[in-house]
Every structure is written in structure tokens, then in C-alpha cells.
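Memo to structure team: turn this sequence into C-alpha cells by end of day. - J.P.
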Amino acid sequence: MAQFKVLIVGAGPGGYVAAIRAAQLGFETAIVERAELGGVCLNWGCIPTKTLLRSAELFRQTQASSSFGVVLDGAVRFDIRAAVANSREVAGRLNRGVRGLLKKHGVQVLTGQASLQGRGRVTIEGSDGVREVSADHIVLATGARPRELPGFKPDGERIWTAREAMTPQALPASLTVIGAGAIGVEFASFYAALGVEVTLLEAAERIMPQEDEEIAAHLHARLAEQGIDIRVGARAGAPEVTASGVRMSIDAAGERFDHHSEKVIVAAGIVGNVEDLGLENTAVLVENRHIVVDRWSATGEPGVYAIGDVAGPPWLAHKASHEGVACIERIAGLADAHALDPEAVPNCTYCHPQVASVGLTEALARERGHAVTVGRFSFVGNGKALALGDSQGLVKTVMDAHSGELLGAHLIGPDVTELVGTYALGRTLETTELEIMRTVFPHPTLSEILHESVLSAYNRSVNC
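Reply from structure team:
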């Protein structure tokens, strides 16, 4: 029976990063994966969807190119098959990259379904049979999958999950997206940009309920301008799948109506992959379809840990990677090992316009008893945004009125997913408004708006 110091179960962005860090620290390390290296994020989530959204962005830009002096003679059309093929090629390249990294660091890759047997023993069932290994430390990084709604069982034809939504062979004429979180609005934005008639349903009273209310309202307005029919407080009745699509009854904010679309995407959250792991042989506790862990990712079973989506929100790849590193460094006993602060994790949504945030919303800051100072600055006052022809959006900063601490930052507009990292670094450094106001931001850049938002909170902005 093979013996390892560290065994990682799941090779997504949490698992493979944890495995590499363990190998760097000199541990004999193996990783078990039943599907594809890189996990859902790399193969069927973060990377391929962003590649598709880039295709939609280029298509959108060509439609407005004449205002920049770029005249395209003849009709511009979108080739969905070529866009999908490009996204799959990018995912494949990164998949091969992960394999190469694991090999470079001496991590042994085991293919199959892992099942914990207790006391550090794990069986792995693969195409070549069942083998048993043991490890001093086992890290579960099995990720999550889309939550199924009653009656809306995905069939791959009319009712899609994200996987089918990113590999269509043709564009549907109409599409209903159930769920207006990050995944839902990204798909709604993508398909609407290509001319598909999109309806977006959200059970909560507003879209993007995890984001600051002001930013969510701004996004709602922008998506509606793009022709997306948004219904909040919405409940869909049992669907009827027909030869031409899906028919359902919708109750939205007290209004009841019949609705039909060619395709339906279910994007109503995710649940952790906790099944078939042999957890019943351990003291690992599962609540709400996620594994219960402490701040260091330790479960109730000695020597067993869980990171990433399977361990609960925020369900983000970069959160999983950092949890993996922190978990391994804690196992190694490093003096500077640090537990992840979930409120320091940036959120990014790559719809058009982009949305990003880090830290507390204004409402949550007030709920926790903070007296707050709030700064706002619109992209319309930013020269680079005007030059790009994309000046709708704003940056909102929330600071403690007494200490000046940066409590949260909330952004909507061009490339804000690239900008939010500056505020994330600021929170890590325990930045106050004074440090931000005294920082020299380069001109002309979109980053100047980060500066202006804080200045505006103290009536010191000179560009509004």
C-alpha cells in the first residue's frame, strides 16, 4: 500500500495548488482526480466562460467600431462554433499546463474515485481496478456542481446547465436564465450580446443579491438597456418541454404569466460534491451539502481537511487556491501560515458591464455598527473611460468614519475585475483613506477612479 504524507482529493484550483505547495515543502504528495485536471473552473467554468465572453465583447466592439473610425464593410456575423472551439482549445491548453506543473513538482497523479476508509486509508476505484493508499493528511477539494431545481432536471437539449450553455452548436432564438447571481448574469449578458432574446429570473427581490444594493440596481438598469427581460421575486412553475422549447408559468412580484423559450439555463446556485467520498467512515460533518471546517480548513476527523467549494462560500476559484495554500502551510507548521479571511476575497462577475467588489457592503457595514463615510465616482468623469467609449459605471468606497479604515469597495464598469485587486491589497495592508488619497495614480488610466472615489467621500475630488 502506497504511503503519502499528503493526499489531495480533487484537482481543481484548490486541489492542484495545494498539491504543488505540499510538494514545494518537501512532502511526498499525491492527488486523486476522477475527471479532468484543473477541475470545473479550468475546464468548464472560469476559463472557458471568460473566453466566450471575450468573443462577445469583440463582437460588441465591432458593432460600435465606426465611431472610432474603423469601418467594416459588409455584414459582421458571429460564428458560435468557432467561439466554442476557441474556448475549448484554451481550456485544453491550461489542462495540459496543470499536468505539466504537477509533474514538474513531483506530485503523483492517481486517476479514479477516492473513498475514505478512516484512519488515513483511502481506496481509489479507477478503470484498472481498486487500489488502497494511506496518508498522514488528506485534503478534500472535490468542488461543487449546479443545484437542480424541482422539475427542471437538465436534459442537455432544452434545459441546460452551465456546461451545455458554453458548448452550443447553434444560438437559440430565445433563452430563459433561472438565477441572477454571477453565473446567471454572465450567461444572460453573453447571449444577449449575440442577439438572443433573453429572460432573466431571480427569486430574490433584486439581481446579484450578494453585491451592494446600489451596484446591483445599476447593473439591472444596464442589462435592461441591452434588451434583457429581468424579473425579480420570480418563481417558475413546473416546465413543459415541447418540440419547440420549454413552456412554464412564472409568478414574478405578484404578476402571473405564461412564458416560452427555446432553451432554459438553470443557474440557481451550487451544492458541494460530498457524495461517494466515504465520509460515513469518518467524523467529517456535512451541513447544507457542504463540509464543516474550522478557520484552518480542518474537519471533525483528525488529519482530514476540506477546501474550496465543497467547504462552503464564497464559491470562488481564488478562494479555493488560497485556502489550499493556507491549509498546507498550517500542516507544515510554518510560523507565518495565515488563515483566509473570507471578507478579504474579491468577487468578480464578467458580464457587460463588469462587476467587482471586496469587503463589506454599505448595508452590512452599517448593520455591524460602523459609522461610515461613502465615496462615489462615475466613470463618466474618467478620461481613459471616455477614450475607450465605455464610461457608464461607478466606483463606491465604504470607509469607517472614525478610523478611516477601508471597509469595502464596489465597482461596476469597464475592466473593474482588473481594478478591484488594488482595493483587496489595500484591505490586506489595513489601508485608511489617507494612504489612498496620498497615493499617486497614473494618468490617463481607469485606476484613477479608485483614487477619485475616496477623494469624493471627503469633498476633495477635482473631477466631479
